[in-house]
Amino acid sequence: MTDLVEVTRKRPVPADLSYSPSRITLYGVPIFALELGEQGTIVCTPDPPHPKRTLALVYGFCYQGHCYSLPEPVIVLVSGPGDDAKGCGWEDQGYFSWDVDKLAPTIQLQVQGDTFEQLILNRNINVAKQPVAYSIAHRMAHRSGKLTE
Known about the structure:
This protein is mainly beta. It has helices at residues 116-124, 131-141, and strands spanning 6-7, 23-31, 33-35, 41-43, 53-63, 66-79, 83-84, 96-101, 108-109.
């Protein structure tokens, strides 16, 4: 079984040595615009459209003095444009950080790139189900849930 997050071992101690049992420091980059390229591309621009809330592409986090790297980045809504990243090896690489409370509400966006047919039509219209499947369910239901007589 694999872990959902990877403990990052070769990173320095977090920059802020004060302790808060509910603080999580997120490390990533702000997302200010989405642009569709050949495979779909996320573009970061220097000025946020809304100064109080920002979508962030998060690559790792620090919680209770331990640094973690995510197996794949996640997009979450955070407060503010973020500060220059400090600690856990994220500094001087263009990353930002956000200090959040673990109980603060947010949203996570799941990104999937595909055609409109796959993302909209095939996921929402049940065209793959054959009429034979309905008759099998009907035959089994008439026996009061018994598989054999």
